[in-house]
Amino acid sequence: MKKDLYYYMSLNYPIELIKIPEDEGGGYSACIPLLGRNAFLSDGETIDEALKNLEIIKEENFSRMLEKGIPIPEPQEQMEEEFSGKFLVRVPKELHRELVRNSNKNGISLNQYVQYVITKGISFSSFEEITETYSNKFEQVLTEMKKVEYEIQEKNIYKEFSSTSLHYIVGDKQDNEYDQYSKVG
């Protein structure tokens, strides 16, 4: 197959979409990390708009790269067959000794114990990411609630000062002058 513009445009490159915070203008940003986060980057008010803009950027950049003879990386599909389930890791002797002790203490093989520790670490890492995300969202909600509470308090204070009973405390205004005595009520 001829590797022309049409060929590269038809490849399925992984796209990274990021929501842009409202205080930074809002909308969405789209990029193709494999081809360069900054070279293949677009944005838009909606996801569709960001993706359409990314297609325009892809076409322009691919055309320029083909014109100049710059090699264009192609996406690699990682198949399950590529992973054998085995890998060699060198660890310090002290860590090896500790892993063996813990696997013996738990009555399982070293391989089973290392698999357990790795899985636990990955799960913990994912859990940390999730809790950090929710913690950030919770902080945002609390901040918004404080703003609303402040606005409510501000309106209540304003209501107190602008109420019809205020003139009884200050006094009745007559001919641009207040009565000598203020009424309470």
TrEMBL record:
UniProt xrefs under SUPFAM superfamilies: Ribbon-helix-helix (SSF47598), TTHA1013/TTHA0281-like (SSF143100)
InterPro entries, A to Z: Ribbon_hlx_hlx, TTHA1013/TTHA0281-like, Uncharacterised_HicB
Regions annotated as coiled coil: none
What's a BP term from Gene Ontology annotated to this protein? regulation of DNA-templated transcription
The identity of this protein, by name, is HicB-like antitoxin of toxin-antitoxin system domain-containing protein
Q: Which organism is it from?
A: Ignavibacterium album (strain DSM 19864 / JCM 16511 / NBRC 101810 / Mat9-16)
